[in-house]
Amino acid sequence: MRRSLLFLPGNQPGMLQSGGVLPADTLIFDLEDSVAAGEKDAARELVASALRSFDFGRRELSARINDLETKHAFTDLKTLIPAGIETIMLPKVSGGDMVQQVAALFDEIELEHGIVKGRIKIIALIETACGVEHAYEVAVASPRVVALALGAEDLAADLGCARTKEGREIFYSRSRLIIAAKAAGIEALDTPFTDARDTEGCYEDALFARSLGYAGKLCISPHHLDSIHRAFMPSKAEIEFALDVTEAMRRAKEDKRGAVSLRGKMIDLPVLLQAERTLHLARAAGLIQEEPDGENNHEA
Amino acid sequence: MELIRKAKSGTLESSDVLVTVEPAGELIITLDSPVKEQFACAILETVRGVLEDFSVRTGKIELADQGALDCTIRARLTTALKRASQPAGGEK
Prior knowledge:
The complex is a heterodimer.
Chain A (H helix, E strand, L loop, with lengths): L3 E6 L3 H6 L7 E5 L9 H14 L6 E5 L7 H12 L3 E4 L5 H17 L8 E6 L2 H5 L1 H5 L5 E6 L1 H8 L11 H14 L2 E4 L8 H14 L3 E4 L5 H7 L4 H19 L5 E3 L2 E3 L1 H16 L3 E3 L5 E3 L2
Parallel strand pairs in A: 1-2, 1-8, 2-3, 3-4, 4-5, 5-6, 6-7, 7-8
Antiparallel strand pairs in A: 9-10, 11-12
Chain B lengths: L6 E3 L7 E6 L4 E6 L3 H18 L5 E7 L4 H15 L8
Parallel strand pairs in B: 3-4
Antiparallel strand pairs in B: 1-2, 2-4
Helix pairs in contact in B: 1-2
């Protein structure tokens, strides 16, 4: 579950320490934009040391490494993978060949350190026009790719347009990414909302991303976590409908039927899959809990 | 590891430690910390452990601590030692 993916500046010990108590689904230790050019080595060492020392609970641990065209990217990977990172966010991915090169490097590092082959996953950050154009190719380039993420600030710069709160300038890219990700069977993650003080604006932005099919949103401020989680929280009516769907489909399965009527509408497997996703989100938000026998129970 | 020049790592921000290392004929460790009374032994044990890991037996090691945790001290000292063992302008 990746509703919220929070960037933590890699060279700030205080921020790294707080990662263990912030309610983000994924922590992204940033070695790229938030780290000054002369401090890349220090940040890399600090993140690796934090990974070996802190208990970050059940949060997914990810790192945004430096641009693959710099001398830093290779050292970032060689340092962080043995330290326990779970996913690597690749910046400025422009094509499938870039992903394949990195995946081959992962193979070598995993082998060298006795890590199960294929364990380290990739979140491909799409933030150039070329990346948007090749989004599907990137998504299917390796089974290690688990998500496409949109980076709208760099994309706007590449497109030569102004970045606005309304985001009309990225509507096409947002749509293109969700289609590419879903066609490849992986998740799409929305661009961060950059006004740290505007929590309501972040909520609206996240709600819109969810309406397009995005699974979660990148996040640059801990203040945005609650807004993002609210946006990705199903409503009471959605949960009730999802519970009814799963119950109706359970009965249909017993009767050996593939579809069944509910509230005057035919429901089938795609509706069940949607319902299961809704219940998954509801569980993550603590709105429902598992019963001992595995059935879901809606808390009144 | 041989220290060939003076190098620093870290900051004076809260939860961090500024580490300065430079070549010297003997091992001299100095610690300045608001929690020196309570944690000097633990901090110095960490420092000695890192120096041992890199086989550094001589050098001047200064720590200006701002409440850094063990893993931060370890990381900052490691970076400073690596920097001090490379010519200026080396790999960062």
